[in-house]
Structure formats: C-alpha cells, structure tokens
Here is the input.
Amino acid sequence: MSMLTATARLATVGPAAWFKGLISAETVKLRATRSTYAMLTGATALAVGIGPLVAKSTASRWPHLTAAERAGFDPMATTFRGFEIAQLIIATLGVLAVSSEYSTGLIRTTFAAAPQRRAVLAAKALVIGAIALLIGTALSFATFFPTQALLDPTGTSLALGHPGVVRALLAMGVYLTAIALTGLGLGTLTRSTAGGVAGLFGLVFLVPGAVSALPAPWNVRIGTWLPGDLAGQLTGLHLQAGALSRPASLIVLLLYPIVFLGLAAIRLHRQDA
Amino acid sequence: MKIEVADVTKRYGEAVAVSGLTFTVEPGRVTGFLGPNGSGKSTTMRMILGLDTPDRGDIAIGGHRYRGLVRPMHQVGALLDATAVHPARTGTAHLRALACANGIAPSRVDALLEQVGLGSVARRRVGGYSLGMKQRLGIAGALLGDPSVLMFDEPVNGLDPEGVRWLRDLLRDLAAEGRTVLVSSHLLSEMSQTADHLIVIGRGRLIADTSTQDFIADGSAARVIVRAPYGGDLARVLIADGAAVEARGDGTLAVTDLTAARIGHLAHEAGLELHELRPDQASLEEAFMQLTADAVEHRALAAELTGER
Ligand SMILES: Nc1ncnc2c1ncn2[C@@H]1O[C@H](COP(=O)(O)OP(=O)(O)O)[C@@H](O)[C@H]1O
Ligand SMILES: [Mg+2]
Here is the structure.
C-alpha cells in the first residue's frame, strides 16, 4: 500500500484561516514544551510570593519606622516587588519562542512549512503577547490582594476602588506583554537564547545603571525613557517630577516591542534562515 | 512538478558554496544528488526551499518560487536535518505543529507516525529518539501534506539496515507514483542502489547529470570483478583486448580498463563461462572521488587561468 493516502488538499485558503493555522502551530509548540510551564510557575511563585513577603516584614517593622520613612512608603510599589525578576522570566519565554528554534535548527523546518517568515513572527508575537497579557494581568491582581491585606496593620493598604489602582494593575499586565514581545524581538535578532536574555538583562538592569551615572539633566531625561522606569511611571499612583505623561509613557513603552519586532521582521525576511 | 535550478551561485563570505549550478529534477524517478562532503548539496537544498537566497540564478518548483507558496507542504515535502527537532516535544507534537501551519488534519499525523513505525513512541519526547527514529520522524514530516515533490538530505544516516531497505522501497514507491524525488548522499554505493538518475556535484559545480547506469558504466577507471571457471583463458582474452587483469586470492579476477559489458561480450565470443560479473563497489567509490576531485582541480586551474573567481 502506498504511504500516501489521500489527504484533504486545500487548493485555496483564505488569509484568515491561513494565519489561524500559523497561530495554532505556535500554540502547539508552546504547549508541548515543558519549560513553558516551569517558567510560568517560577514567574508566578516570584511575583505572587515576594510582594506579600515584603508587606509582612514592612508591617512588622512599621512601629519602628520614622515618620519620613512612613511617608515615603509606597504600597503599590510593594505589590510589584516580585515582578522585577518575574518580568525577566516572562520575557525569556518570548526569547525562547524563537531562540530555541535556532539552537535546535528547527527554524528551518518552521520556515519550510511556512515560508512567510514575517507572518510566522507575527503569529509567535500574538501567542506570546496573549500569554504575557493574560498571565501578567492575572499575577498583578493576584498579588495585589494578599499584599494589601498584609499591609493592613500599617494603615497604608489600598482598596481596589482606590483611584488609580485598577489602572496600575492593568498597566503591569501591559508592561509584561511589552517586555515579553521585546524578548521575542531580541531573540530573533540575536538568534540565540544567551544573546536575547543578555539583551533583556542589559535593557532592564544595566542600561538604567549606566544612564543614572550620566550628568543631569540627561540621567533623568533618558532614564524616563527606559523600560524599567516606564513600568514605575505607569504603575505608580502619583506622577513623579520629570516623568512623562501617562499616555506618553505608554507610547514609549510600546515602542520597544514595535522597534525590536520591526527590526527582527526585516532581518528575518532578508537574511538566510 | 519539476525542480528547476538555473545558474545558481551562492557565496558565504569569500567561500563559494555553489557555483553556476544548473539542473532539473524530473518527476517519476528517484534522482540522486551526489557529491563529497562540502560539495554544496545541503546548500542547494536550502536554496530550493527558500531558506537561503542564491546570490545569482533562480530556482522554481512547479514553476513557482518556494517562498511564494502558501501551505507549501501540500506541494513539497522535505527533510533537511533529522536532528533539528526540539528534544522536549513529543513526536506527535512536532508533527502537529507542522500540520497546523499547513491545514492538515491531526488524524493524518497519527496515521503517518504509525506508517513510519513510530506509533509506539509517538507520545515520547523526541530527545530520547535514536538518530534512525529521528530520520523516520523527519520522513513522516515530509510526507504529511501528500506532496508531489520530495526532498531528503542524507536520509540514510543513522538508519539500520532494515531502515535503509525500508527507505529505498519508500523512495521507489514515491517515484513510481509519479512524484519528483531528490535524495542526496555522499556515497555512490548508496545511490547506485536507489537512484535512477544522478546529479553529481563537486565543490558546488555540476559534474554529471546522467542515468545511474551510464554513470557507473562510464566509471571506466573502476574495477570489475569476474569469477570464471577457466580464469586463465579468460584473462588472456581480456588482456588481448587491452585490460589489466589481476588474479585475486579468492579465485576471482579484478579487471580494470574494460567495462562489465565488454567483458561479458568477450567471454561470450570466446565461449567462456562466467559465474560472476560485477563492478567493484569500493573501486567505484574511488573512481567517483577521483572524478569529483579531478573536475574540481581542472576547473580551479581553468578559473585561475581565465582570472575568474
Ligand atoms: N551557512 C554557511 N555559512 C558558511 N559556509 C557555509 C554555510 N553553509 C555551507 N557552507 C559552506 O559551503 C560549502 C558547501 O557546504 P554544504 O552545502 O553543507 O555541502 P554538502 O551538503 O554537500 O556536504 C562548504 O564549504 C561549507 O563549509
Ligand atoms: Mg550536507
């Protein structure tokens, strides 16, 4: 008997159905990879764990704090203390979505199966973006409640209805999405997990350090345009001096994935796979 | 559908991987893509699949450029590198991702895994597969879309003898169904048993585009092994015809400078019985290496003289 029994041949396929196929393919890959679950579990543990821990210790130290220390305390920032590391894990998921295909050589199979490389990147971005937005927003809310509950004794705890709280929680989901997509762009540009993660690390941790060493006013001017600072601006309840307006900071934040994915799309299209 | 490679050149930096290569792969037969390691076979196949872009020249499959194909697995199935899999994913998941991207039903994935003999390990992580199993998985991937063009890069690597036989039968069946089948190898012995037609390259240049039979018959530098009850008489006849004959310990004669056909003819004319008449595989391989090396040197020299780079 022949190996090749008849299969449903799609002579013509609409663009929507075709792109949906690419999205399914990326979803299958992500779901079939154990490290996806491990990383999401790790990110969840860090995000949801650290905020409440810090809240608990703050509450126990509260009676010994000075008035100035109490006035400077930020209950919203405490919620997000675990997200500094969790963001790197979520962003690494974005890097890996493409870098693991380069390290295994699978990328050639992927592009032989779908030669429209930019559409493949778009499908990856959609899947990674959706997961980051969903998980990021869920983690944001899931961390807020226990953190604030533990801050109750300090009298600084925030209710969900407090002005700006919901906006801040949603903004963290958006920030994590932007950083995950930036990771996808960096992974595509460097074609390497180490390169992509190093790029992220630099962008989130090293560049801010270097910029803060610049002479004033450049340290603040440039600093406010960096992703970490933008996260603070978007999730803070009050605008700091020198900060961008909220719409502006959102736009600048979104420029990161747009620019890196855009460059990645150009490189993918033009260069050998 | 044909694969048409027209005057293709590919450089990586200074190194020229493929140079002015032109050939057509026809449907209905197994075409062997033969050349020593580093001669540009994989590069050519990557260019056919639109993964690498030629610096010069054009490649068409059924008249279309690969990168213009939508859901190409229905037209072209390929296995470039069986080890290019994500070790943490199962065989099923690996194929399912490809199937999704090409609108192929999941049931087709299960059926193919069964057919290539991976049914029992389909739900295991690919990282635990042997190279032979990965080859089978890759071959299943190539067949997923029921394509009319198939391309395999050194698919024999890692297969056990039973797997090699299975693959040979599969390739022949696919060609017999009217499909275009291109299979690369660096071993002539391997191709001589599978391919109907050969495209031979050395250092990225075309050396021969001919039927396997003719290619082997032309390998006149190759030895022919003859077993005959009256070996001494036969040797005299062959030497008279210009052959060099060597008596081997096992009672056979090793004949050079005569084709097997000529030896058979002379024996028949002299009324001498033959018990065995076959080209010596090892020497055939040597002759092939010699041929590709010679061609390369000649062209390098010619290029130097004409100032071409
Ligand atoms: N991506 C690449 N970068 C640089 N050189 C390459 C690349 N791919 C192939 N080559 C070079 O091109 C030549 C042909 O290689 P290849 O196509 O792999 O040959 P084959 O498959 O016949 O063994 C070799 O000299 C190889 O080193
Ligand atoms: Mg090769």
